Amino acid sequence: MTVAVAAAADVTKSQKQMMEFGAAAEAGAISIPRTGLDLPNRLPYEKWVLMGRLLSTVHASSAWCLGDWLLHGETAYNGRYREAIENCSLNYQTLRNYAWVARRFPLSRRRDALSFGHHAEVASLADPEQDYWLRKAEDHGWSRNRLRAEVRASLNERAEAADVTADGADGGPDGAQGDAGRGRGDGIDLQLEITADRVKLWRAAAEQASLSVSDWALRALDEAARTA
Fold this sequence. Notes:
single chain, mainly alpha, 3 domains, 9 helices
């Protein structure tokens, strides 16, 4: 079963469970006030267990579902969905945030082992970087906060490297470039012409090593230099 098919199957199951839960609430079998859950005294054990599973599913997927719900409403009910949001007592800006993350991650790219919050932390990155960081978070069991710290540290390192490269490109007093004109850390701007096949090969090797392509390339160059 492919990832996309598996994701679709999970979504269908979750949708069915939530519709069953909603039907039970509408039928008056259970009461769902905003402050808690009022259950009948003679609720059968099997239904009580099922409700626990349904509540767990709703809790874990609520942000995703609300985001997908809003995206659907924007397309299917243009001009009417804002009224529906107000009638449902939902905060529009919060929904917009959910919808933005949901749009950035189609169902086939969402990782069931990670929370909505994990995906939100990397939603602003390019798709390959999203997949890279989410894979690392899943493999190493990172919390949302740990993922956030790792991503920020990586982005800060890139910014510092960019500053060093910019300083090195300024050159000397007359604009000439050379050893005396390089910035802190002797950073240089290295440009390479790389074929698509080579990029694919490097990316696969970097993913195998749980590294970004740039970090993997630097490590490979260092190893080659030491053995030369």
